[in-house]
Automatic annotation (TrEMBL):
The keyword Transmembrane helix does not apply. Keywords: Isoprene biosynthesis, Magnesium, Metal-binding, Transferase. The keyword Hydrolase does not apply. Its cofactor is Mg(2+). It comes from Hydrogenophaga palleronii. Belongs to the FPP/GGPP synthase family. Pfam families: polyprenyl_synt (PF00348). Its EC number is 2.5.1.1, 2.5.1.10. This is Farnesyl diphosphate synthase. GO terms for molecular function: (2E,6E)-farnesyl diphosphate synthase activity; dimethylallyltranstransferase activity. PROSITE patterns: POLYPRENYL_SYNTHASE_1, POLYPRENYL_SYNTHASE_2. PANTHER family: FARNESYL DIPHOSPHATE SYNTHASE (PTHR43281:SF1).
Length: 301
């Protein structure tokens, strides 16, 4: 077995262990006891699906900076709850009107629109609750920092603002800077926040912090471009969501703007920039983050 194969095997083992740890923590924190079936809808939205990329970025970055492992797990789950809530709302008829997510019916199809709306609201609230535990197991200053990072990435200057631009852009042509700006908010902000929340659990120099921010931003763009490519090249069964939806809804994408081959080249450049930024951090234990970046930029589903 060569060194590269061994490294890949090590990452696969780390990823499987971390995914299971996140799944267990989410199951313990997203309880079924919320009234009128709300807990069931919340658990349906969160559990048993997804790559858990955002939590993995939190955990890997925290490990790279020798951070607080307990705080990192709370941060990892909080990011995933925000991501899950956004998918629940995005899939509803008033927005993207999707019926398939993570290989199963979307929450509003399964539970009705009102329950889906409430489930998303409750997941968003729970995300911030996790960052401020009642037992003070997370230092107050760290709780504040984590809450601020998450709020900024999810709000009007982040994910929600990006989704607003996305909806307003249906049927329109965007130039590359406008498309990049939209996706830095809609997709990239939460991915970048995942990296920075992991970094916040440890001690990081200002220089390393700046490079980690660049890493997260570049990785967010790479993720979105690959997502646009897969929407064209993969089928619904493999994606676990409706393939070809962007074109059907006449949404501007990197593929519609520059074509498939150029979009792939763009994704490769963004991935290379992510790796370069990570190398410039000076962090010793960054192999898992490099492997996560490749997992994002080379994925086929």
């Amino acid at each position: 077995m060569n060194a590269r194969t061994s490294e890949n095997a090590s990452f696969v083992a780390w990823r499987a262990q971390a995914q299971q740890a996140v799944e267990t923590a989410l199951s313990n924190w997203v309880l079924p006891g919320a009234p009128a079936g709300l807990g069931d809808a919340m658990r349906y939205a969160v559990l048993d699906g997804g790559k858990r990329l955002r939590p993995l970025l939190v955990l890997a970055t925290s490990e790279a900076v020798s951070g607080d492992a307990a705080a990192a797990m709370r941060a990892a789950c909080s990011v995933e709850l925000i991501h899950a809530y956004s998918l629940v709302h995005d899939d509803m008829p008033c927005m993207d009107n999707d019926v398939l997510r993570r290989g199963k019916p979307t929450v509003h199809v399964k539970f009705g629109e009102a329950q889906a709306l409430l489930a998303g609201d409750a997941l968003q609230a729970l995300a911030f609750e996790l960052l401020v535990p009642g037992d003070a197991s997370v230092p107050l200053g760290l709780s504040v920092a984590l809450c601020r990072l998450l709020a900024l990435s999810a709000g009007a200057d982040g994910m929600a603002g990006g989704q607003a631009v996305d909806l307003a852009s249906v049927g329109k042509s965007l130039d590359l800077p406008s498309l990049e700006a939209m996706h830095r908010r809609k997709t990239g902000a939460l991915l970048q926040a995942s990296v920075m929340m992991g970094a916040a659990t440890g001690q990081v120099s200002s220089e390393a912090t700046a490079q980690l921010q660049r890493f997260g931003a570049s990785l967010g763009l790479a993720f979105q471009v690959v997502d646009d490519i897969l929407d064209v090249t993969a089928d619904s069964a493999k994606l676990g969501k409706t393939a070809g939806k962007d074109a059907a809804c006449d949404k501007p994408t990197f593929v519609s703007l520059m074509g498939l081959e150029s979009a792939q080249q763009y994704a490769d450049r963004a991935l290379a920039e992510a790796h370069d930024a990570l190398s410039q951090t000076g962090l010793v234990h960054r192999d898992v983050l490099h492997s996560l970046a490749d997992w994002v930029g080379r994925r086929d589903c």
